[in-house]
Model the fold of this input.
Amino acid sequence: MGSVERHQPMTGHGGALPPWSAAPDNVIPGAVALDAVMAASSKAVVLVSVLWACPVGFWYGLSIRLREPQPHGTPEIGPLFEPHGRDLESGSPLFGAGERFHFTLAFADGRTPRFPGAITAPSPADPEPDDQIAHRGLMGKATAQRSYSTWWVWPLPPPGPLSFLCSWPAMAIGKTCVEMDSGPIRDAAARAIELWPPGPGHCFDGRHGRRGW
Amino acid sequence: MAGTAVADGEEVGFFESRSSLPVPATVPPIEWPSEDILPGVVAEVILLGRSASAAVAVGRFLGYPTGFGFTLLVRLVEPPTGVAVGLVEPPARVAFRTPHRSFRFDDTRFPHSLSWGRQRRRAGLADLPADLLRVGVVFSDGRKVTNLDADGVGSGAPAGVLNAQLELRGAGGLRQWDFEVWVQPLPPPGRLGLVCEWPAKGLRMSRAEIDASRVLEAAARAVGAPTFV
Done:
């Protein structure tokens, strides 16, 4: 089975995207080197790697490896894209409601984002989350046995431990939590460079790039 | 931001000289690192060049037993238009999905890609268009490899290999491009040079350096990926 890739959809709305909606595109971020095993069982291994940070948030990567390939489907490449791991032929969920992969994170002050449930294009009109934390998928790619996705988290975590939590009953993974010191993320954010003022949030709307294919 | 000094405007002709190298008859295979290895990481970013319209940086170096990787970060003030969208390297497959339609394309439709120099070399064409982003790596022993080298093969023997794979990150426009770059083999001790040039964006030839020992130490920290329990 070939690989499957998904990228966060792009919108044609004008105006700058708010920081809870998408990572800024006018910044060279600082690099982070934080890796941890989020969960491991006889059926699956889940890794989290914090990659980049800027003053308004950070990116991390989520890697999943399965012992057995999922027939006709992809492993979870991120709930934003394939909420339940879907069979590529039938489109039906690979896992039952009680067996699905769930993951989230929590700041030291208790903030935790609501679990993302659908593909939504970022928009300048996205409301600020009531819970003051956002967690959005950026891209994902997967084969039947491995997957990788990247995630944007707004805002930066406060001092103290940053927790990544998951459960995946179908893969014999109960509720697990791994903690990281959030200090290196904030340190990396301080090294980021803002290149120019943020621009309008356009656009893969046909005005750019469509010509030629 | 950590980083080493950037020399701007030096080594004029660096990339032009690459475009006149003979195309080798045979090339070694390009092998991306195994997913079963967790690399050591050098959490550093170096701004290679910046102009009124673009910025290019490299960072987050990954050390593996067989080579090293880094991210090439490209930021644009304005999204590229027309075919210039294609900063894309052939191994990369870029897919966009919107609520209404999907896009999937490959390098053949994007002559202004990072690999275009390679393709033109294969075709016997040596000129370098101003809108081609040029990127290269220089080892302390003089070996060089760039995105202009045919099939990623650099000078000297054993040849270096540079290949790139795109990860398009973020949203809100095509102003943010991240390329995952793989270089093979590991560099020798000494200064590891990173160069770029993008005339159409006002980025003159620039070179930055990182101590190769940091990459080598990262490679020594690479471990096998956690396995099933």
